[in-house]
Amino acid sequence: MAIVVTEDGLVLEGVSAGVPGTRLGEMVFTTAMTGYQEALTDPSYLGQLLCFTAPMVGNYGTGPAAGESDRVWPGAVVAARLGDLPGTAGPVGLRTWLRRQGAVAVEDVDTRRLVRRLRDAGAMRGGVSTELGADELLARVRAHPVLDGRDLAAQAAGPRRTLGAGNPGPRVVAVDCGMKASIAAALVAQGLRVEVVPAGTTAEEVLALGPDAVFLSNGPGDPAAVVPVIAAVRDLIGRLPVFGICLGHQLLAQALGLETEKLPFGHRGANHPVRRAEDGGVEITVQNHGYAVRADRLPDGVRVTRTSLFDGSVEGLEAPELRAWSVQYHPEASPGPHDARYLFARFAEGIR
Predict the structure, then answer these.
(1) End-to-end CA distance of the chain
(2) Does the annotation mark 204 as catalytic?
(3) Residue 330 designated active-site
(4) By CB count within 10 A, which of 43, 116, 204, 247 is most buried?
């Protein structure tokens, strides 16, 4: 047996489907019906516990091609049902893969009740355990630090590396705050030479690489707390073109003088409609974020380019004179709708 608790006292029972253990973090949910392996290997979930709203996940197996990194990042996995059969994604069932990854996972949970609680009360701290009773687990959850104010980008970043070294295109420095593998692949596919540097790299160190542009990646944690990256971006904007995705969008906003705020329960799924300001067109997008940019006081020269049709939150920014722009959602859409993949080509064309 296993239990799931939230800091407001909700207790749900389930069955262990991974390794034994106890995990604490911010309890969040994703509404995507596919892409479970991509979500589980996304570094943006560091510090969180991930609940799948789909009634069953794991019905097409797992395989190396679907990984966004080489490990599971959520502290624990919560689901109504986890499949364990091979499929088009690969020969290993999801439950078997989770155990091999050393992941704590629980199924047979009333995920509808859990998600309704999070939608009504907002994202909150939670715990999953195969070892503890409800009272002890709840006490640990309430003593666990909240996500607000925590810089997790450096923990999620990978080592410095070069991608697409043989490409003929411009050189881009990608600041890795927890970058998904498919984002790096999308940049390389545009013919770019990509120098990946970890979060915390200074502006001077970036400039020493002689880049033609800078890319800011996705990642976990509170964007306002990622002070080293914000400081570096502040020194780089106006000197080089800058393009940011997800956390990178929020870090660019902070560097431009805007603020970010916590969303009630975040945007995590593959069906989020976003309206473009330039032509009124709508893109169906993949999203994974718990914070949003506030646009109540836009600095001169900065404009909102995209808006969520779910809640009106900012989904894109642009500072044309500074050659800086960003989107809140994931154009690589791995997996998901491909409406926004053109943004990588737009970035590459703009720096050639």
Answers:
(1) 57
(2) no
(3) yes
(4) 247
Strands 259-276 and 282-294, how do they pair?
A: antiparallel
Q: What percent of the chain has pLDDT over 90?
A: 99
Q: Is 255 helix (H, G, I), strand (E, B) or coil?
A: helix
CA distance 118 to 112: 10
Please tell me which residue in 26, 195, 315, 332 is annotated as part of the active site.
Answer: 332
**In this structure, are strands 213-216 and 303-308 parallel, antiparallel, or unpaired?**
unpaired
Q: Tell me the mean pLDDT in the region 182-210.
A: 98
Pick 153-350's CATH classification: 3.30.1360.20, 3.40.430.10, 3.60.15.10, 3.40.50.880. Answer: 3.40.50.880
Is-contact 331 343, C-beta < 8 A? yes
What CATH number should be reported for the domain whose range is 2-143?
3.50.30.20
Q: For the chain, what is the radius of gyration of the CA atoms?
A: 20
Q: Which of 262, 266, 33, 24 is nearest to 144 (CA)?
A: 24
* Catalytic residue from among 26, 38, 246, 315: 246
Is there a catalytic annotation at residue 13?
Answer: no
Per-domain residue ranges of the chain:
2-143, 153-350
